[in-house]
Fold:
Amino acid sequence: MKAMLTAFAAIAVIAVGASIVLGNAGFSSQERAAGASVRLDD
Structure:
């Protein structure tokens, strides 16, 4: 039981960490799909 709870906690930490890292790295669909001639609302 302890191993399963530790694994769930690790999954949550990895998911939150990946979300933060990828958000700051510029991998959002808005940044990847927009060209120079596209005006996006800020």
